[in-house]
Amino acid sequence: MLYIAYAPLYAHPLPEGHRFPMLKYELIPAQLLHEGVIAKENLFEPFACNEDTVLLTHQKAYLEKLLHQTLSASEQRKIGFPQSPALTQRELIIAQGTIDCCRYARQYGVALNVAGGTHHAFADRSEGFCLLNDMAIAANYLLHHQLASQILIIDLDVHQGNGTAKLFEKEPRVFTFSMHGQHNYPFHKEQSDLDIPLKDGTGEQEYLQILSHTLPVLLEKVQPDFAFFLSGVDILDTDKFGKLKVSIDGCKKRDELVFTELKKRNIPVTVAMGGGYSPDIKAIVTAHCNTFKAAKDIFNL
């Protein structure tokens, strides 16, 4: 069974200028249903993550600011969204969705969150559209409940997972791997356990060659019993901010490569969508839907 976490946008009203980037969260499941890739029973709507679980990762004073709407104007600018109770609630739902996906992945091999991948969130602050770091919250949940002993986070969004790197810099049970644009946001990079910065204009062949040489070696070295995969599609050549030259087909090959390597080692994986900012929403949705299709095909679900 393929389980997909889905947080409807009715929980998150946004000003007009912020709505376009959010459209994909409605269009992805709609497209998968339309094509018959999934049925309604594949989708589940999570509840909000509880405070104790969030506090395994984030500082209490910071969580209180989110819950009580006391972020300063400067702090809100760093997010890119104005604060609202609905925004905080959606982030809590997304975080719980990633946790729930971990439970399903342990049973079926893979599960996916239509949202998530909020890798710019730190223990004490928000950045880059990210308030709560859903993969970090889920990883700490697994460790706390002894559901995993060694975790690998595979972050292939075009932006470095700076919040994730910082959160786990002193945690040997979580290995952070980020392959990202060297000259892209964030302009101050944190240090992941393995960073591969890519030059502007890196092409599809080189991108896939680097990943195909790196990931198998990394899996043998880390020996994870659980993985997270941040499958951002802002690596596309059509992306407004990505600066890389990967086609939609190349992005699909990336996903297939990751899933194949994890599947043959019996490593369960939770997937979150991450970024995607092509001007044509169809390109974004197509690339993201390919991730779901690859997961379903390779894990035989």
Automatic annotation (TrEMBL):
<keyword id="KW-0378">Hydrolase</keyword>
<dbReference type="InterPro" id="IPR037138">
    <property type="entry name" value="His_deacetylse_dom_sf"/>
</dbReference>
<dbReference type="InterPro" id="IPR000286">
    <property type="entry name" value="HDACs"/>
</dbReference>
<dbReference type="InterPro" id="IPR023696">
    <property type="entry name" value="Ureohydrolase_dom_sf"/>
</dbReference>
<dbReference type="InterPro" id="IPR044150">
    <property type="entry name" value="HDAC_classIV"/>
</dbReference>
<feature type="domain" description="Histone deacetylase">
    <location>
        <begin position="21"/>
        <end position="289"/>
    </location>
</feature>
<dbReference type="GO" id="GO:0040029">
    <property type="term" value="P:epigenetic regulation of gene expression"/>
</dbReference>
<dbReference type="GO" id="GO:0004407">
    <property type="term" value="F:histone deacetylase activity"/>
</dbReference>
<protein>
    <submittedName>
        <fullName>Acetoin utilization deacetylase AcuC</fullName>
    </submittedName>
</protein>
<dbReference type="InterPro" id="IPR023801">
    <property type="entry name" value="His_deacetylse_dom"/>
</dbReference>
<comment type="similarity">
    <text>Belongs to the histone deacetylase family.</text>
</comment>
<dbReference type="GO" id="GO:0016787">
    <property type="term" value="F:hydrolase activity"/>
</dbReference>
<dbReference type="Pfam" id="PF00850">
    <property type="entry name" value="Hist_deacetyl"/>
</dbReference>
